[in-house]
Write a structure and sequence with these properties.
One of its GO terms (biological process) is mitochondrial translation. InterPro entries: Ribosomal_uL16 (IPR047873), Ribosomal_uL16_bact-type (IPR000114), Ribosomal_uL16_CS (IPR020798), Ribosomal_uL16_dom (IPR016180), Ribosomal_uL16_sf (IPR036920). GO terms for molecular function: rRNA binding; structural constituent of ribosome. Belongs to the universal ribosomal protein uL16 family. This protein is α+β, with helices and mostly antiparallel strands. The chain has a domain of 118 residues: Aldehyde Oxidoreductase, domain 3, CATH 3.90.1170.10. It has 4 helices and 11 strands, in the order αββββαββββαβββα. It has a 4-stranded antiparallel β-sheet, covered by helices on one side. A hairpin with a 5-residue loop joins strand 1 and strand 2. The protein is elongated.
């Protein structure tokens, strides 16, 4: 009986000694040896099961702002710009663009689907690029049907952006992009939007409301001192040249009289 108890006690002591040695060896090992490869192929430490992962794998990359000043916003209206500003109605980076012909509110889903259609159509063309000129940063809140008035604003539904008439929302470009291919791809993207659009190029003029604005040749606002002196010299020379001719005409008139 005593022999069996002694054997059990010795086995228990040996197990505790092995546990202590393994813990000390694991703690003294270099951090590289304790790094393991996770299921997603990312390195993780041995105690990563008890800590939150720092590297997050984003599968669905959607158009969502990182942060906003306010949680909710007013619905607002898309005004018809008639004050003279033509900002955002012409191309900036690409060779062809998609411009809206009416004031509209575009949701993030509309922009994502239209951008996917553009990228899918331009995939066979080497070096082609897609530029998005607007971004959905306005939260839209919706209340359910047959809901009584009051009780605060509705809950968040989706992100959107306001595009006024003549706003360029997409641009495409590339060294191997042909005009017929660009127009075909733009028609695919226009079919995904809830408004009427038009395709523009670098020769298209700016838009102001319903009318196109032709570019004006503006004179330089700053006149240097040399230019002012040169204009004065030319004016004085012209006056001096005209004075003898006037005197000759007066003498001829007197002689004829």
């Amino acid at each position: 009986m005593s022999t069996s108890l002694f054997n059990r006690a010795s086995s228990l002591v040996s197990s505790f000694s092995r546990l202590a040695v393994s813990s000390s060896s694991s703690s003294s090992a270099s951090p590289r040896s304790s790094i393991a490869v996770g299921r997603a192929g990312l390195p993780r430490t041995a105690d990563s099961l008890f800590q939150p992962a720092h590297l997050l794998q984003v599968r669905n990359k959607s158009l969502v702002p990182r942060r906003t000043k306010y949680r909710k916003a007013h619905k607002g209206r898309v005004p018809l710009a008639l004050g003279g500003s033509t900002k955002g109605t012409t191309l900036e980076w690409g060779d062809y663009g998609l411009r809206v012909n009416e004031p509209v509110r575009l949701s993030a889903k509309h922009l994502e689907v239209a951008e996917a259609a553009l990228k899918r159509g331009l995939k066979p063309i080497r070096g082609s690029k897609v530029y998005m000129r607007v971004f959905p940063d306005i939260p839209v809140c919706i209340k359910g049907n047959e809901t009584r008035m009051g009780k605060g604003k509705g809950t968040f539904e989706f992100w959107s952006c306001r595009a006024r008439m003549g706003r360029v929302i997409f641009e495409i470009g590339g060294p191997n992009l042909r005009p017929e291919m660009a127009h075909a791809v733009m028609r695919l993207a226009a079919a995904k939007l809830p408004c009427t659009t038009e395709v523009i190029d670098k020769t298209s003029v700016a838009r102001l409301g319903f009318d196109d604005v032709e570019p004006e040749k503006l004179a330089p606002r700053v006149t240097t001192l040399g230019e002012a002196q040169r204009k004065m010299q030319l004016a004085s020379a012209a006056a001096a040249a005209a004075q003898p001719s006037a005197q000759a005409e007066a003498a001829a008139a007197i002689a004829s009289a």
